Amino acid sequence: MQAFGIDLANRQQDYASAIRPDPSSTSVGGSMSLIDKVVAAVTPPESEEKRREARAKAWAEAGQNDWLAQLLHHHEQIAALFGAVRATQDVTSRLKALKELAIVLTGHADAEETAIYPALVHFGHKAHGMAGYTEQAGAKANMGELEYLDPMSSEFLDKLEHIRGAVAHHMYEEESDRFLDLKNLPASDQARLTARYMEEFDRYVDPGHKSDPEFGTSRPNALEGGDLKTGIVR
Hints:
This protein is an all-alpha fold. Helix content is 60%, strand content 2%. The chain has a single domain (46-233), classed as Up-down Bundle (Four Helix Bundle (Hemerythrin (Met), subunit A)). The chain has seven helices and two strands, in the order αααααααββ. α2 crosses α6 (154-178), α4 packs antiparallel against α7 (187-205) and α5 (126-146) runs antiparallel to α6 (154-178).
């Protein structure tokens, strides 16, 4: 199976291609669920250009393989994986792509919720930290609901688009504002955030997904001697 790693050198590629969901779209039963309505209410008002600018700004603040670089790389992987799910043409491929997306999205969310959001709360940015928890809870609920839908149906694709739009906006909020304040912390706190984020990500995902031979990745990280800001693995 083809690895899902992306070209980190090409930072101008539009990874977050989510669109604002149509509030008139329906889910199971012919009407939007309560969760869908919440998602629609918070879907991105920002443009793709604004998202690219925010990501470029965040990459400029990131250190070599630090917590922010790792996190941004995962944001890019997640956006690419949403596209991979939608691009599939048969049930088997779609379910496999959905599994890949769910693994990385959940591992990333768990790492943020365990390492990054508590730091936001502790260092005086409680509103930003709590907003992250709320938004990711909605994404997890919606991802779980996908399992009840026919993967080749329009309802599935509509739900997927709802999630992708909400996740894209969530990423924008983090990259443009929420996380940048943490870059003002001293080096000791930066090192702790980096270690804790990757510890929690790998705890869920499993380093390199070595336990799952069907799941490939080319994720470079500090332990592997890679540079996330350039995509070069030494």
